[in-house]
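Note to self: the last two entries modelled the partners one at a time, which told us nothing about the interface. This time every component goes in together.
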Amino acid sequence: KQEVTQIPAALSVPEGENLVLNCSFTDSAIYNLQWFRQDPGKGLTSLLLIQSSQREQTSGRLNASLDKSSGRSTLYIAASQPGDSATYLCAVIRVVNRDDKIIFGKGTRLHILP
Amino acid sequence: EAQVTQNPRYLITVTGKKLTVTCSQNMNHEYMSWYRQDPGLGLRQIYYSMNVEVTDKGDVPEGYKVSRKEKRNFPLILESPSPNQTSLYFCASALQSMHTEAFFGQGTRLTVV
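The predicted structure of the combined assembly is written out below.
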């Protein structure tokens, strides 16, 4: 059974620091992996989508990497800002009997200190 | 503006009283799905739909029904709500399954007393 784990569950860092959020999954047979951001009381916003054939994706100050063989993905945030404070979720998508199955991690709650 | 709209945003109801949470998307997406989010359990998929008239169970479908009669709408129906269905619900859509970028609604916070 696919499990997705995000460590740490919560993280506080001073503004301006670079930081890495981790996501691990137990079954490497994934179709793609997505990173989302969730603000309190709000829905999820897709940040980056990495196809299984890709190693990384970049968007602005965000860079996500994927290592299928080791079952890991990282989300790198450069020059963190208070506006980056949110919960970050990763989700893996598998194809099971020709249907997509999505499994979310429980998220890392990030707080950027001004 | 491309968006997924859920209604209502907040709902308090009593056990056993049927309710429907609506979800509508304006992006002509084929794929739509419902999730519930609970503390310590994360997001879990309830039902999903690959296209009109095609729906499938997710990981936690018990106590829920859905329909996909037209592309833009994917209502979530609780025929007889129970307190264990108190949760934060999200609707999402994607162009073609979850292989493509997913767009989420703002969420519906449901309390069943």
